[in-house]
Amino acid sequence: MQHSLKGRIALVTGASRGIGSSIALSLATAGADMVLNFLTRAAEAKAVEAEILRLGRRCVSIQADVSVASEVQRLAGEAERSMGAVEVLVNNAGIARQQALEQITESDWDELIDVNLKSCFLVTQAFVPAMRTRRWGRIINISSVAAQIGGVVGPHYAASKAGMLGLTHYYARYLAADGITVNAIAPALIETEMTRTNVKASTSNIPMARFGSVEEVSDIALLLATNGYITGQTINANGGWVMS
Length: 244
Ligand code: NAD
Description:
Elements: E1 9-12, H1 18-29, E2 33-38, H2 42-54, E3 59-63, H3 69-82, E4 88-91, H4 106-134, E5 137-142, H5 146-149, H6 155-175, E6 180-187, H7 193-196, H8 215-226, E7 234-237
Parallel strand pairs: 1-2, 1-4, 2-3, 4-5, 5-6, 6-7
Helix pairs in contact: 1-2, 1-8, 3-4, 4-6
Nicotinamide-adenine-dinucleotide is lined by residues 13-14, 16-20, 37-39, 65-67, 92-96, 115, 142, 144, 187, 189-190, 192-195.
């Protein structure tokens, strides 16, 4: 298991901190060479990169706003040139600015849908052709419990995360014959900057009575990156908030 991703190249969007950095470290520990995408915090991305290099893996950090098609094209080109074909893609980048319902504007809606949902489409479209050529790929989309029960951010966030499940189902069905699995992870409240800055984040609805750790999400990403027969699924990591 430890080296089951040896020789594979993986890309995590929004990998400079939180869930994304934990997934990047977990995939690298299992043997993957890594492409780390980040938006603004270059120093944090470089710190994750240094940790991965210390594991003996190849790693590169690439700045790009994944909600913009031209930036995604540049990201794909730079990733291919510096590392080779990406075979494991984790669509993790996201924002969750908590707002009062009546204060959410059209531009708030557009921004959040672009960053959380359109990015998942743009990045997947950019990296799927190489996976199809190689007839092997893993795509992991970080959705949320908000897709299932609304959550504590806002309707735009819930809709963006539910949209990721639709993308997951479409791509899973369409790409299965090419040896590509596509799955989603739906975490509830995980101890990251996103949760720490949301005044509505509380453990009161969570049977486990605590926030989850980033490792409790990255463990699942590693499973989905290494398993070839799970596809089209949503794996919940929510302390029992939603049961299925
Ligand atoms: P975080 O705020 O710590 O990290 C989000 C990352 O996404 C950051 O690195 C940020 O720079 C990056 N990002 C944002 N916009 C970007 C853009 N346009 N282009 C590239 N990168 C961009 O939050 P987190 O908790 O680690 O969240 C990671 C993912 O998990 C998000 O999609 C979030 O919606 C989802 N999620 C989080 C929780 C939670 O409780 N923390 C629960 C469910 C789902």
